[in-house]
Design brief:
By secondary structure, the chain is of the alpha/beta class. The chain has a single domain, classed as Rossmann fold, CATH 3.40.50. It is built from ten helices and ten strands. InterPro entries: GTP_cyclohydro_II (IPR032677), RibA (IPR000926), RibA-like_sf (IPR036144). It catalyses: GTP + 4 H2O = 2,5-diamino-6-hydroxy-4-(5-phosphoribosylamino)-pyrimidine + formate + 2 phosphate + 3 H(+).
Length: 272
């Protein structure tokens, strides 16, 4: 074994090695800050969800910048102690020395974004989720700051991707709208709105409180869904609302009509 070790030649220092060593010597303090940010940071916060007071554990797992067609955002990865667990947060704001976002004017445009793999990732024409996300990013760019809280586990209005794929089969083969298809798969005798959208948003409030964003901030929520506004209101936030209107087309109109009637989404289709 000793002989083998002696036979390994020493690696010559190349130009790339020298430049690398110079960089880490120069930038060591910042590199250490980023290493520290990769150490999970946990806070316990209190939220109200559907009238119940809950203690929720929020853990920041990491963060980094991403350059998008709408400028630079910082993406944060969170784990929250609720049923949805995984959260990704896009933030357009300055960061303090501990990488916490700073909204200096106290105004924040917030988008709560439930996952939609079929639309946001694979461009399914029967939903407008991708277009809503892009519009929210554009509005945040115009606003100069804001936040999008993306919830990967809330696909299919919280019922999961597999369930949603089943509803798409009924929509395609039988002509059902999104509400009818979900109710049929759940064997409902009548359409029950609450059972067809079990999503909760206490985790979003928990993340805002992790960041120190309390009810003193001026928050505007980019949504068509009144249920999302209620999540802020029951936690003491006085919020405004910015509708995210995507003109309907031949693929989306029946589904938007159904969501407007069943879930009271405010679609304000002035150009419909």
């Amino acid at each position: 074994m000793v002989g083998i070790e002696k036979s390994i030649p020493k690696r010559d220092m190349k130009k790339a090695d020298i430049e690398y060593r110079e960089k880490i010597a120069r930038d060591g303090a910042f590199i250490q800050k980023v290493r520290d940010a990769l150490t999970p940071l946990t806070k316990d916060v209190t939220v109200i969800e559907n009238g119940q007071v809950k203690e929720v554990q929020v853990t920041r797992l990491g963060l980094g910048p991403i350059d998008t067609p709408f400028g630079k955002f910082y993406e944060f990865e969170f784990e929250v102690g609720d049923r949805w667990k995984e959260y990704n947060v896009l933030v357009k704001a300055g960061l303090d020395d501990k990488f916490n976002p700073q909204f200096e004017d106290g105004k924040i445009l917030v988008r709560m974004d439930s996952a939609c793999k079929t639309g946001q990732l694979f461009h399914d024409k029967t939903c407008d989720c991708k277009l809503q996300l892009l519009k929210a990013m554009h509005e945040i760019e115009k606003n100069g700051s804001g936040m999008i809280v993306h919830m990967p586990k809330q696909d299919g209005r919280g019922m999961g991707l597999s369930f949603k794929l089943g509803t798409l089969m009924l929509q395609d083969e039988l002509g059902y709208n999104t509400v009818e298809a979900a109710a049929a798969l759940k064997s409902m005798e009548f359409i029950e709105p609450e059972a067809l959208d079990p999503r909760t948003y206490g985790g979003v409030i928990a993340i805002l409180r992790f960041f120190g964003i309390d009810s003193g901030f001026d928050i505007n929520v980019a949504t068509n869904n009144p249920k999302k506004i209620q999540a802020f209101q029951e936690n003491g936030y006085d919020v405004g609302r910015t509708p995210v209107i995507i003109p309907p087309n031949e693929y989306t109109k029946r589904h938007l009509d159904a969501k407007e009637e069943t879930f009271h989404h405010d679609l304000r289709r002035d150009n419909d």
